[in-house]
Amino acid sequence: QLQLVESGGGLVQPGGSLRLSCAASGFTLDSYSIAWFRRAPGNERPGGIACIGANEGSTYIASSVKGRFTISRDKAKNTVDLQMNSLKPEDTAVYYCAARSGSVCAVPEYDYWGQGTQVTVSS
Prior knowledge:
Order of helices and strands: EEEEEEEEEEE
Structural class: mainly beta
C-alpha cells in the first residue's frame, strides 16, 4: 500500500517561508496525482490548496494561496514539494499530502493520505 510521509513543517514568523515535502517509499510518485490539503484550527475537514497531475499533468493552486505557494515534483528524490512564501498567520494548519490514481488532480477524492505536518505562522 502506498504510504506518504510529510516533512518540513514548523514554526515560522509572518512573511517567512517553508518548504514541505511529500515522500513515498516503494512507489513512484510521478504516476500519481498528488495534492496538498490543510486543516486549520477549528475546521473539521481539510481543504485542498494545491495539486499536480500524474505524469506531467497540470497543476492547480487555490486562490487563497496563489502567488505565494507553488507545487512541484522532485523526480530524483521522489517527492512532491510545496514551497510556501509570504506566510500569514491564517496559513496555520496541519498540512497533508494525498495521492490518487489518474491524471486529474483538482478533485476532492484522494485514496492515500499522509499523517500531516504542523505549520504554525506566528510572531
